[in-house]
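Hey team,

Filing this mostly as a record. A colleague (T.K.) asked me to run one chain through the structure pipeline before their review meeting, and I want the input and output archived in the tracker in case anyone asks later how it was produced. No errors, nothing strange. Just documentation.

Input sequence:
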Amino acid sequence: MMSSTRRESKRRQFARLEEAVVLGQLVGLEVTGWTGSQPLGGWGGSSHPEQVALRHGDPERDNTRVSLTTLCDERAVVELDWHKNDLFQKLLRREEQPPKDLDAGDLHRWFIEQKRRIEGREPVKWSSATMTVDGVRVPGDVIHRADRWIAVAAIGGVTVEIMTRGLEVDAAALNRVLTLHPYVQGRRKLREAHHREHERLMHR
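Output structure:
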């Protein structure tokens, strides 16, 4: 059960995020016309919010899922190669899951070995692609792997990272969000749905 102090801290964080979006200090992007689950992902920043992830789809139920992370920091645009490498490593980690029967010690060793393999890979070749953001075609770099693809693009002083499954690149039209309220509510609804499912399985 979340304490009242923690709830108040979360409320203030969401208020800061919302204010940054409304004032244009933080750019959030979503898939145009998306009608499914829309949970707020992670966010970060030092003195003010600089990064936010808006997710589309339930990772435990939906075949089509999209995660859009925007970084409103001029330094991020300069460091595009670092972001591309980091995003590709995230994709590899999602593709390879550990066996379910490992104990805590073996699981720890499995993740260490996975990290070593992924970080030791040769650099991969990215392809050029264009995406639509607020009706404007934007160039970016993309990697396709089976039914997944990832992309990185720079739009002015904003770096966009996309990780998706089950959605074609040409169908990934994006638009700027004007409020995070639907994503805050989506985060709450998704957690409540997972809690109900967990309770149902526990009492079968």
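Quick notes for T.K.: The two ends are 23 Å apart (CA to CA). Residues 181-202 form the longest helix (22 residues).
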